[in-house]
Amino acid sequence: MRPKNAVITLAVLAVIGVAGFVSYTLVTSPKGRSSLSTTGSCVPTGVAEVTESAPAVVVSGTNRSTSKTNLTEFGAVREYALPGPMRWANGITTAPDGSVWFGEESVPGVGHLDRNGTLVEYPWPNPAAYSGDPGNYKTGIWGIVIWEGKVWATDMERNQLVGVDPLTGGVERVNLTGMADSPYTLTASPGGDLWFTSLSNPGRIGRLNPGLGLSVFTFRHLCGQEPLQLDFVNSTSGFFVALDPLSPSGAGGLFRFDVSEGPTGMVANQVGGEFSLYDPDSVSVSGDVAWVVQHGPSNILSYSLSSGSWSVWPTSTVRYTNFTLPYFVEAVGGKAWFNEHYGNKIGVIDPATRKLTEYGEGDPASVNQTLVQNDLTIATGQGGLWFTSITGNYIGFVNSTVDTGFGVTPRGSRTATLTPGFQAIFQVAVSRTMPKELRVEVSDSELSTSVPKLISVAVNQTVILPPSVPAGSHFDDVILQVTVSADPALKPGQYVLAVTATDGSVYQTCYLDLDVG
User: Fold this and answer.
1) What are phi and psi of 371, to 5 degrees?
2) 31 near 139, Cβ under 8 Å?
3) Between 79 and which of 72, 139, 338, 419 could a Cys-Cys bridge form, CB atoms 3.0 to 4.6 Å apart?
4) 423: Cβ–Cβ under 8 A, 6 or more apart, which residues?
5) How far apart (Å, rounded) are the C-alpha atoms in residues 330 and 110?
């Protein structure tokens, strides 16, 4: 479910038998390019080639439609059901008034959802010109932003950017064919331009100025890697993650770039190169930290811009698959929000407290992959996170101000030195105000799955609240003793242990640090 091997894969909803029973099949879009070669010269200096062209712009009108969505709420999660047939919601951004805009790949077009549930849809003209089956996706809309008074979205199928005027319904198109095919993500820079990534070969990024002048940049020194997402830290510089789509190991990296010297002087420099990245897909910078999502592993990465060091943040695991598949990350206020595609969860990491909260998207929570709702894109706003659900056919919101009823906090030191053959002991307090059974789980940073292997952990498996105590009553902390040992084969180094308590819908995690000698 990601643009790896330069193939955009999307999940198809199949209704089998009785209503409500669904399964998912992965299909490949017509944009697949797995046969392309990455051979050719690489320029080690990192100077970019630039192609500039006046884009073809077509202005036209579109018929808007208004409807009311059905709202479902459980815990901190709110779901706005979209009209049938499937809208294939993907790509989402928040507006200053608290509403959200998102792509509708099967229309194709964009939708505008107000928090009161009102939905206004803007189909793009000439949908018959798109490939794809009726009711299925007709393009890929992974990027969407509000820029220069219009809502702009990527159109991977027709190699263009599309801008919709919310006041008139008028549509502008910027043709990218042959210059930056398969536009992927969008970023509005502080300098006032609109930037985008392109899943072309070689990998390119592009820039629109407010007059819709187009510039396309090719970083030949990336040697087959494709930039996937940009994030600016000021008007001229920022970071992007890049991935080699043909690498069996998912090789990629985090790069710093600067456009202050003009198009021909743009240089991309890899940072933190000694740390191996696996399927990097998304980057978001907040303060001194660049947060990176690796779509394969069950963890999130943070990179300190000042010290140049990496940190690994394991997610909690799920029992029906080996990977939770984080997809996109957005950092705001020092915290990092992200979605877990196969985990069917929304997560937020607070590095100041070294805690992770994850919210299950389904009610009931997913117990196997048939219940995964395929949320692919996210947007922070209104004290939480908005997300799209393709096969669930809804727009979701997680309200981070809702009290989860329990928490997990280390007692004493959260750091220990561990020598193979010996043990380290932590104490973790579980505080509760809900009469529910809580399950305790452990994950760590050893492997990409976050499942412990050479680090062994013994901890109380369950914490059971007395059934006779009324809801809302407060309980004294239950202290868990976490005993950790290391196999002699474990390599010396720094490891992160994640201790999670969950009621099956919400997951509360505290991080502990191990120094293995």
Assistant:
1) -100, 0
2) no
3) 72
4) 483, 484, 485
5) 21
Q: What is the pLDDT of residues 34-80, one digit of tens each?
A: 222 233 345 444 556 777 776 767 777 767 899 999 999 999 999 99
Residues 6+ apart with CB under 8 A from 4: 243, 245, 250, 279, 295
Contact 358, 376 (CB under 8 A): no
Going by C-alpha positions, the residue among 306, 267, 275 that lies closest to residue 292 is 275
The secondary element (H helix, E strand) that includes residue 20 is none
Tokens of 285: 């910078």
Beta strand spans in 82-182 (E): 89-94, 100-104, 109-113, 118-123, 144-147, 150-155, 160-164, 171-175
441-455 average pLDDT score: 96
108-164 pLDDT, tens digit per residue, is 999 999 999 999 999 987 765 665 555 688 899 999 999 999 999 999 999 999 999
Give me Rg for the CA atoms of the chain.
23
Alpha-carbon gap, residue 93 to 99, rounded angstroms: 9
Beta bridge partners of 410: 428
